[in-house]
Specification:
By secondary structure, the chain is mainly α. Helices cover 77% and strands 0% of the residues. It is built from four helices and no strands. Helix 1 runs antiparallel to helix 4 and helix 2 packs antiparallel against helix 3.
């Protein structure tokens, strides 16, 4: 369970940073650099990030059985749809965009895709670095054991 909570906090922080940058881009592009905004936006970013991070709990941790490649793809698609519904739903409730202005919705969707891709790339790169490090250590351990057995 600790591993799941650690994973949730890790993903939440990555999502929050990306959503903060996406919000800065969105507000600057649509409202201008001199836009006056409420501190509520910070709480809204935290809420949206938390809602988008929760589904990470459905992914297996190190000690759990891995999914098949097809299962992972299906899960990613479900997660992407969930994120879209959550961000667009909460964004509309928070007044981030107006459905009467399609350019706002399109811009928001572009940012959703961008944040989703960036978070997934960062997670992939972190996992890859960790796997490479473990493989290197394992190789070194095997080499040491091989030398000890050869004596």
């Amino acid at each position: 369970m600790f591993e799941k909570v650690k994973n949730l906090a890790n993903i939440f922080s990555k999502i929050t940073v990306c959503v903060l940058f996406a919000s800065a881009i969105y507000i600057s592009a649509l409202w201008g650099l001199d836009a006056q905004i409420s501190v509520r936006i910070l709480w809204q970013i935290i809420i949206v990030s938390a809602v988008c991070a929760v589904p990470i709990l459905m992914y297996p941790t190190k000690n759990e059985k891995e999914l098949s490649k097809k299962g992972m793809i299906v899960r990613q698609i479900i997660y992407f749809v969930y994120v879209n519904i959550a961000v667009l739903g909460l964004g509309r409730a928070f007044g981030w965009f107006y459905l009467e202005k399609p350019e706002m919705v399109v811009f928001m969707e572009g940012l959703i895709i961008g944040v989703y891709v960036i978070v997934n790339l960062v997670v992939y790169m972190n996992d890859r670095i960790a796997a490479d490090s473990m493989n290197r250590k394992l190789s070194e351990l095997r080499k040491i054991k091989g030398e000890q057995n050869g004596k």
